[in-house]
Design a protein that fits this description.
globular; 4-stranded mixed beta sheet; 25 strands
């Protein structure tokens, strides 16, 4: 049976005017700043006006380690949100914005799939409301002002060898990872080695996603460390006098975007840090606003639970004072078989033994999530090739882990396929059984925090870090940054730093290659293994197939 593509389904959506979607949450048209007919920003004035309201229930959707077989975390997030509304609950979805890098690379978009999507799909996966461009511009304005300050006499006595602020671009471009700037003579400045990261790894992105309002945004931007003097004393963005102008560029981007699902339910789409190289959650302001407007808020954290969920719990919840009432862990029969050793080409054939073998990865994530004190439900994201015996094997395994698994067919049937999952999730969220607590306390040393994540989440035996890295961490502690959480930058494909090691490996080490202090965002980035903060394009990038056809319609997005 042939199924429609995601973009075909999205184009057939019967969208309602964005004002109607806002009304479902009590947002009047006066407080919606429309971008066309089907998307808008919510005004800060309105957000301020609802802060005295009681919070709804917070539901986190996460997943097993991603495989080429597909897991469908965003699809499940959207399907669960639609399912909750379909059973009579007042629910909203909160997800991240899409980066152009993966859209034109290999991962694709970030709007869900099948009959569990957020629309307008094409706009969301391309320029949307311009938030990423604003973040890129603000970040690079600071870069330009740093080099300009050095050029015009360097009053702050910046050591040009210790400028830590790199430039960013919202595109996968490996050629820009390491660069030399200011070549060409005296008029072009002082040559130095630097490089580019992708915009979703920018500290400005992280700050926008953690700030409460414009005043908080400006303060955080100002305390970003951008360079050091020869005596190792830090230079802040506020010293360069860039924080005010950066805030101006980010003024509109700071306001959350509201759109709709295929079933015309409200969805906040705001911010977009990757979870493998950044903290992987949508903005705090979108999540906290949704919690004031809906009884249930379904949000997601990027990639597998070892990355996105860990950072959601240890960074976002810690910083914003949030606590999830229920966690939904997404898995697929196909991914279980791939973790069990089945090649992608053979996933369509029934193989119950491989499913059972691959469930170890699922079990590891269940145990990790429970260590935060939260109840866990496994959502089996249904594929049409799944057999009853394979699905039952997953359900039986999950039961042995002290949890429960529910088959959800939202991709194929929309809310009708997710009603059972929605009913059970609402019951758990309402029960008040969650006893959430972050994995480590603020008082631990930075290296102890790294070890805690590596040993308790990745199940590593040790963390490998040379004296230079350990000394850097100690210097930051002495400078007053020891209470910050850590943001692990690691491959998403494995619990180890080797992307080819699937399942639930033990007896491995976590090598730390570099550490970066994000003083404005309020965490320390720990770069492990060979993970890159500027991805490259694959051998055959998706961009080769994206075009506008004779009818003037975009083709090739997925």
């Amino acid at each position: 049976m042939a199924f429609k593509t995601d973009i075909e389904i999205a184009r057939e959506a019967k969208k309602r005017p964005i004002q109607e979607i806002g009304e479902k949450l009590g947002i009047s048209s006066d407080h919606l700043l429309p971008y066309g007919h089907d998307k808008a920003k919510v005004s800060q004035e309105f957000i301020n006006s609802v802060q005295d309201r009681k919070n709804g229930k917070l539901i986190l959707v996460t997943a097993i380690n991603p495989t080429p077989a597909g897991e469908g975390k965003t699809t499940t997030t959207v399907g669960l949100g639609d399912g909750l509304n379909a059973i009579g609950k007042k629910a909203a979805v909160c997800i991240r914005e899409a980066s152009l890098g993966p859209n034109f690379g290999m991962k694709g978009g970030a709007a869900g799939g099948g009959y569990a999507q957020v629309v307008p799909m094409e706009e969301m996966n391309l320029h949307f409301t311009g938030d990423f461009h604003a973040i890129t511009s603000a970040h690079n304005l600071l870069s330009a002002m740093i080099d300009n300050h050095i050029y015009w006499g360097n009053e702050l006595e910046i050591d040009e060898r210790r400028v830590t602020w790199r430039r960013v671009l919202d595109m996968n471009d490996r050629a820009l990872r390491d660069t030399v700037t200011s070549l060409g003579g005296v008029s072009n400045g002082f040559p130095r080695q630097t490089g580019f990261d992708i915009t979703v790894a920018s500290e400005v992105m992280a700050i926008l996603c953690l700030a409460r309002d414009l005043a908080d945004l400006t303060e955080r931007l100002g305390r970003m460390i951008v360079a050091y003097r020869r005596d190792r004393s830090p230079i802040y963005a506020r010293d360069i006098k860039a924080d005010g102008a950066m805030t101006v560029l980010l003024k509109d981007a700071m306001q959350p975007n509201i759109v709709q699902t295929l079933e015309n339910n409200p969805a906040f789409v705001h911010g977009g840090p990757f979870a493998n190289i950044a903290h992987g959650c949508n903005s705090v302001i979108a999540t906290t606003t949704a919690l004031k407007l809906a009884d249930y808020v379904v949000t997601e954290a990027g990639f597998g639970a070892d990355l996105g969920a860990e950072k959601f719990m240890n960074i976002k919840c810690r910083k914003a004072g949030l606590a999830p009432d229920c966690v939904v862990l997404v898995a697929t029969v196909r991914a279980m078989k791939m973790n069990g050793g089945v090649a992608k080409a053979d996933l369509g054939q029934e193989n119950v033994d491989a499913v059972k073998e691959g469930c170890a990865n699922l079990g590891r994530h269940i145990g990790n999530l429970k260590s935060f004190g939260v109840p866990v439900v496994v959502a089996i994201n249904h594929f049409v090739t799944d057999t009853d015996a394979e699905v039952q094997a997953v359900k039986d395994y999950v039961k042995t882990q002290g949890s429960e698994a529910i088959l959800s067919r939202h991709w194929e049937l929309g809310s009708k396929g997710s009603a059972e999952l929605a009913t059970r999730v609402a019951e758990i969220a309402d029960s008040g059984v969650s006893q959430f607590a972050p994995l480590y306390k603020d008082e631990l040393s930075l290296f102890e925090k790294i070890e805690t994540v590596a040993k308790r989440i990745y199940r590593a035996d040790e963390v490998l870090a040379d004296a230079k890295i350990r000394n850097q961490l100690k210097e930051w502690e002495e400078a007053g940054y020891g209470n910050l959480p850590v943001c692990m930058a690691k491959t998403q494909y494995s619990f180890t730093t080797d992307p080819n090691r699937r399942g639930a490996p033990t007896g491995h080490s976590v090598p730390v290659r570099e550490v970066r202090l994000s003083a404005g965002a309020g965490f320390v980035v720990v770069i492990c293994g060979e993970i890159m903060t500027m991805p490259g394009l694959p051998r055959t990038p998706a961009a080769e197939s994206i075009r506008i056809n004779d009818a003037g319609v975009v083709e090739g997005l997925f």
